[in-house]
Write a structure and sequence with these properties.
Largest interface: A-B, 59 and 60 residues
Oligomer: homodimer
Strand order of the largest sheet of chain A: 7-8-9-10-11-12-13-14
Mean pLDDT of chain A: 95
Number of strands of chain A: 18
Distance between the termini of chain A: 52 Å
Chain lengths: 726, 726
């Protein structure tokens, strides 16, 4: 009996009484076996792989990834040769590692340290495909790109592909605690089993590294930004060292978060003042200790003076003082410091959206060369939609890293299908309109982040990981797409979210256009659906207290004003929205718009010119205000909330039609999650409408159903065990 | 390409750069394909499966398990028929469900509700194997037993096997919290994803049910004995209902823990007094509500007035008052109440080992018929070794359930290889020597628990689960054997731990005797190794505070005396051990021995007759006391601590020799864990010797190495993130 009938027979048993195999573990590297004429075509191009002997660990992994990819695609191993011996050879290597590649005089100069070239050409008299780079990790990236082409059904006969990453540091940020709890994690526990490290190195770490390398991610911050000094203790450095050994073969460097008060907590010092010589010496020694164990350690990520975390301001020093102290400690080893701009202070009475800008812009030029300031895409906190952060473009002398949140803290956790590609794309494509950057470069956020606009030496992007111990890694199949699109955009911020969705769908499911087209459509509209049923028209931060699960726009009793949903929506009998325009006569807006470049500020400051999607972000407007549809603001809110729910119903219908193309296990999981999403979208709509109606006392537009329950019902719901707590 | 070369090729890629497939998920149901002549033999006996049409869900699952087992064994599906059509037929069913089985007039009377019969005979003129029972779940158990025979290499030509369980209620107890933390869990999070229930029912629940059914477990307590009233709230009953739907097809009923104060916390009552009519009505209504959702709900497990849990004594009522109130609520629905005897009170100055007996024996005869009292195997708390609990045999009118701990809270978590079969067997085989039971029945603990001695109507066994979200379920491959042996002994307490180990090894790894024999030997010695390096000669409870990770015999400053290791070992300059003999002249022992039957009390009360393994459990002896080896007590302690470490080294050597028989992934994981165990065994030895030596100032025997570090080093170690915290 050959393999396929066996698998088919096993599949037939699935979901009657027994469970199944298509559990999502293989991610987009699933690489279903290719059949028919296409298999013959592929086979004709990958008859063997040519690898130099004695290459580095990374090159060896590139070779094994090639064999694995070939085995999966063709259910057939390919021989490894030192030089082309057959037609249809694939040659891997760098000029330094491979005499064959060196002999080809390839145009590799423009590829930089990590780029690759994939080219069809004759080598040693044989028809071949060359996957070459200036570094072994570039070859590895090329191998993954090659199989992306193979698995997406691309023709392989005349390849001439080259690519290099736009940013140097492409990281995941794990908000993972040492007890394996993941803050804002909806996919189980942390995959880092600190207790069993260093004695046991879970083979899953290797699969983690493979998946990340396949999309160009080259580093990972292992620990939570709400940091724990213990992660820098000697026992934990040993554990991190063991982990780095598993990730290094795939080009993944590790980084740690640094708790600013660690010199006190771990070192027994009396202060953590960044200008104190003892403190500086402690950090220097700590960096030396880490680098002795992990020579390619990437550096530190720091959240300081934000939400209760210690920081330099505790000692009347600036963020630059703090960052530079750490930067000096890691500089001799080639490390960097990533200093988060997400700061907001309890004492500051100003609009929370303004605080990062106010604190950081004056420090531009005062950071050491190896410091990057890490800025969230928007000025509040990873909402379903925010306008771009005004810091982008405003710190020309300081490398600004983008921080996206891949985990869906505010977008329905892991049961709501929300493809974040459009969210990321919207942020990266936003035009800052700042002046003074490089000539001819449109000053988009992407061009700030990739360093082209301001000529940053270091560049980077960070994504808050949605990865956990769940078998599916991300808690759902479609959340894997968010990990994927983040990595692809970190490599090239100008890729299109739609193209990436299609790439992902083809690799994860099938190349059948009857599946690809509707599912990509569904993904592309999914984030807008969430915006509609949670926070339409520029509303924000209406989620349940603490866990952010479900609607709670009525909450107004939290410890600080800017934790309350009422702070954000400011609804009263007359209207709704946050006036961020200029203050007049001591009244009026927070003037946050003035942090943008003048052209942008003018646009956002004018109700008529403000894109409707940001309307209530920037303006407080009467319920009767007419919007572009001709409806009143209140009617439009009801329409959009309702539309969000309807969009999910449409997604359910689309998915129902995909049954012929998907294995039962994934089909059922996605369908079950969509049902949960639909129920929760309805809950969002009904609770928000019930609440806002209790304030404005206005009727619903004709034909729109009232909320299913009275407001008190929604207010009574409690979710003490919602996942992802801080 | 057929299946085997494909799998071989994939395996060849394992552990070079990539990860692997033999991750332990399939447990003992792994069912490797059978090869060669044996495959032909098996094939000749399972040419088809005969199943009645339109059977129950359970019978349908029995049929699918058969097909799955056949498919795995022979990589070949078998046809399903309504009557035997081929030689080598396998006939499944009950007389009620299957006309074919009904026509055979099988001797099924003695099999009870859950037993099965497997017999070779001619059916309808064809050579057949009949797997029959009085109930569909009995057929399911028979199918699993049949494949145990198949996979263990047993001859199938002339089968005549029958079996019925010795206990009625065979449960796992999950100490799982609603936030998915598992108390004393070392295998990841809880597999119950309460947040996603009821909308999403993880297919893993089905595999959980299959695994349990395969060893005869028929119920599971979903929630922690340190209970949370929220688990009885309507939303959580809906979630439990969804879970019960996944488990029911495999004969697994669900149970919940009941927090005694739930009427206050959930019901808003002012009291939880079990004699209060409002409280009684609340529980009755709650039971009715649960049974309306889950008609086969099993009942409640209760931890009351123990370690801070609320209970009837808060209202000056007895445990019987509390249990009977709940028992009345579930009785109309056929449910039971399991009331834990693990009680110890802060105020009681007596030996903690005595308290359960003192509280419960006077209540014998005062519990309702559907109450079982659940008793841990020993009187302290799941130590590496304890003498049997004196309650066994002392409550002839009250069904006593055994509570074993499968999760290794005190035996090295999931990285120490310690097969618990011998521990369970030692407890079950202990002879209570009580009088007055059924004539001709040796009054062992097993005969108390299975009800034969005292004629209990209800009987049961509970195992505290070692199951979590880890891919391997139990955190390690060998910990799966502890789940397995628990289930097999709950079915039949008279099975041998060694035979069960062999069964498990054959199914989990291979039938090759070159593997089976040494690995079974290794398993059988492994628990004794733990006793030696942790708590030799009857010592107990010397583990680290709270988490119980590693040694901490020096701790003497905890909130209550009987949480301190010093309370248990009582070492001073003169000697060591806990005198549990009679008090003389106001001094002397705790008299715990008097709780045993007189013959046993005389044995344990006499230093010379006390088995050496319990020496310091019952006696405080001078360091110079001569033991059977001729050595002083101190020298013997050192020898045993050292021997424990050496035993682990021998296990490492044994395992190293097993490389040819095991896939790389499992070989490496076991080897890595053994290395951790060896390091931690050395730590245990050295820390304990350093500590006791600091007290007795005695030299080590010749040739025994001093501890690697000074005592202060061991005392300085801290493990704030050790897993499994309460």
């Amino acid at each position: 009996m050959n393999a396929r009938p066996l698998l088919a027979a096993l599949a037939a048993l699935v979901f009657s009484c027994s469970s199944a195999a298509e559990d999502g573990y293989d991610l987009w590297l699933r690489a279903a076996a290719i059949k028919g004429a296409r298999a013959d075509e592929v086979r004709s191009h990958i008859s063997e792989v040519v690898l130099p002997e004695g290459g580095s660990e990374v090159l060896r992994c590139a070779g094994e990834e090639f064999r694995r990819g070939a085995l999966r695609a063709l259910t057939q191993d390919v021989p490894v040769e030192k030089a082309p011996a057959r037609e249809g050879s694939v040659v891997l290597g760098t000029p330094a590692s491979s005499p064959v590649v060196a002999g080809l005089a390839l145009p590799l100069q423009s590829l930089g340290d990590e780029g690759y070239l994939i080219r069809s050409q004759i080598v040693g008299g044989k028809r071949a495909i060359v996957i070459a780079a200036n570094s072994d990790v570039g070859v590895l990236y090329g191998v993954f790109q090659f199989f992306r082409l193979v698995q997406s059904g691309q023709p392989l006969g005349a390849l001439d592909v080259s690519s290099r990453p736009s940013t140097k540091i492409r990281l995941l940020n794990h908000w993972d605690n040492l007890d394996q709890h993941v803050e804002r994690g909806y996919a189980g526990q942390s995959i880092w089993n600190w207790h069993k490290l260093p004695g046991w190195v879970d083979p899953r770490y290797t699969d983690y590294a493979r998946a990340n390398a396949s999309i160009g991610i080259n580093g990972t911050v292992l620990t939570n930004v709400n940091a724990n000094a213990t992660s820098l203790a000697p026992a934990y450095i040993e554990k991190a060292k063991a982990l780095s050994g598993a990730l290094r073969p795939y080009g993944i460097r590790i980084y740690l978060t640094a708790r600013f008060s660690a010199p006190i907590e771990l070192g027994g010092l009396k202060t953590a003042d960044p200008l104190d010589p003892g403190v500086r010496a402690w950090w220097k020694a700590k960096a030396d200790e880490i680098y002795a164990a992990i020579p390619d350690f990437g550096g530190f990520l720091v959240k300081a003076n934000s939400e209760g975390q210690p920081g330099p301001q505790d000692y009347k020093r600036t963020h630059a003082d703090g960052a530079n102290m750490l930067a000096e400690a890691v500089a001799p080893h080639g490390g960097v410091v990533m200093w988060r701009a997400f700061v907001y202070s309890n004492e500051t009475p100003t609009d929370r959206a303004k605080q990062a800008f106010d604190e950081f812009v004056p420090l531009d030029g005062r950071f050491n060369e190896n410091v990057l300031v890490q800025v969230k895409n928007g000025a509040i906190d990873f909402q379903p939609r925010e306008p771009f952060h005004p810091l982008f473009g405003a710190m020309p002398k300081t490398p600004l890293m983008m921080e996206f949140q891949i985990t869906k803290e505010y977008l329905g956790f892991s049961t709501h299908l929300a493809y974040l590609g459009p969210l990321f794309e919207e942020a990266l494509d936003a035009d800052t309109r700042v002046k003074g950057g490089k000539k001819g470069v449109r000053p988009t956020v992407a061009k700030v982040v990739d360093g082209e606009l301001h000529g940053y030496k270091y560049t980077g992007m960070a994504g808050v990981a949605n990865i956990g111990s769940d078998r599916s890694w991300s808690g759902s199949i479609f959340d894997q797409a968010n990990w994927y699109v983040y990595g692809r955009l970190a490599w090239d911020p100008e890729l299109s979210a739609r193209d990436i969705a299609e790439e992902w769908v083809r690799q994860t499911f099938t190349n059948d256009p009857a599946f690809v087209k509707p599912v990509v459509e569904m993904m592309m509209g999914s984030r807008e659906a969430v915006v509609d049923y949670m926070t339409p028209l520029g509303l924000a931060h209406l989620m349940g207290t603490g866990h952010h699960y479900g609607p709670a726009p009525w909450v107004n009793d939290l410890g600080r004003a800017d934790w309350n949903p009422t702070y954000y929506h400011r609804a009263d009998a007359n209207g709704i929205g946050f006036d961020r325009g200029p203050a007049k006569d001591g009244k009026g807006g927070s003037d946050a718009i003035s942090q943008y470049a003048p052209e942008v500020a003018r646009q956002f400051g004018d109700v008529k010119k403000t894109p409707e999607q940001f309307l209530l972000w920037f303006h407080h407007l009467p319920w009767s205000h007419r919007v572009s549809s001709g409806r009143s603001l209140w009617d439009e809110l009801v329409v959009r909330y309702t539309r969000g729910v309807e969009s999910v119903a449409k997604m359910q219908a689309t998915w129902e039609g995909m049954k012929p193309f998907v294995d039962e296990e994934r089909f059922k999981q996605v369908g079950d999650y969509l049902a949960i999403q639909h129920e929760e979208a309805q809950w969002w709509r009904d609770a928000c409408i019930a609440y806002f109606q209790s304030i404005n006392k206005l009727p619903l537009p004709d034909g729109y159903a009232p909320p299913k329950h009275p407001l008190e019902y929604y207010k009574s719901l409690r979710f003490p065990y919602a996942p992802g707590r801080t």
